[in-house]
Amino acid sequence: MLVKWIRCTVVDRRGFERGQRKWAGLLGEPGFRGQSGGWSRERPEEAHVFSFWESRAFYDSFMARSHDRLAAAQSGTYRNMRIGLFDHRFDVKTGFEPRFTDADVVRVAHCKVRPDRSDHFALMQEKVWNPAMAGSPGMVRGLFGEAPGEDEFLVLSMWWSAAEHGKYRVERVERLSLRAQTSADVVSLSGAVVDLEASWTV
User: Fold this and answer.
1) CB 124 within 8 Å of CB 178
2) Three-state secondary structure along 34-51?
3) Beta bridge partners of 24
4) Are 3 and 88 in contact (CB under 8 A)?
5) What gap in Å lies between CA 171 and CA 188, rounded to an integer?
6) How far is Cα 54 from Cα 144, in angstroms, rounded to an integer?
7) Is residue 50 within 8 Å of residue 36, measured between CB atoms?
8) Cα(110)–Cα(191) distance, integer angstroms
9) Global pTM?
10) What pLDDT, in 10s, does the model give residues 39-97?
């Protein structure tokens, strides 16, 4: 599965949200699995959208055919768009699927990793971080993705609420970071806690 993560700064919120609803046109596109998104808690003018495709081939076909027509509705409503494409490596918890109806919040973490530490970073995600997140009461599901050939990784997790995610962070992150030797692996870490907008879900 291919994961697309879009970030942008919105300059016309009403126009952007109106355009976002037009993406319902994705339904029926070959290989399309789901899409949703919302607003960053830390930066209220920043929108995040997460889109899921069965494969890169299906995604490339959509981009060549239908993308520009759907995107036209949001023209001029945002700036500084950044796009990342990631291959699904493994689930956080079990049985990831791009469903958003049972989560209120998505936490997205974008990690740039030292080239010689990529394998270790992925292993620690599997052995240290995954079990900790999967054992957190408010965590619904998630995935670990890799940008092909980039030493870049995406950790996307869905939570019942920001409060539940906050409990997990306060209690455990520092201890887990030490155990996973995160500082030795990671060059930079960015991300957001995103309040999902139900009307953006396709």
Assistant:
1) no
2) EEEEEEECCCCCEEEEEE
3) none
4) yes
5) 22
6) 16
7) yes
8) 6
9) 0.93
10) 999 999 999 999 999 999 999 999 999 999 999 999 999 999 999 999 999 999 878 99
